[in-house]
Design goal:
With 76 residues, the protein is mostly beta strands. It has no helices and three strands.
Length: 76
């Protein structure tokens, strides 16, 4: 099945991160964690936004923030 390229962009506070999901599929299950980038967060509340940045119909099920830049969520 052919699909359009998927891409989402995350904004953390005033920082726009590089769009993710540059490929057309995430494998047979069409699910994958994508590292969006790094952002320095000020103390207090920070607004997080997720934008559709591609030609396909993107969906985001979860966003994970971590203090450890090397950490990766488990794969399913």
């Amino acid at each position: 099945m052919e699909t359009a390229p998927r891409s989402v962009r995350v904004r953390v506070g005033n920082t726009d991160l590089t769009p993710t999901h540059g490929s057309t599929a995430a494998g047979p299950r069409r699910f994958a964690w994508e590292r969006a980038g790094r952002a320095d967060l000020p103390e207090g509340d920070v607004f997080l936004e997720v934008f559709d940045a591609g030609a396909g119909e993107e969906g985001v099920d979860a966003v994970v923030l971590s203090r450890d830049g090397d950490w990766a969520p488990p794969t399913f």
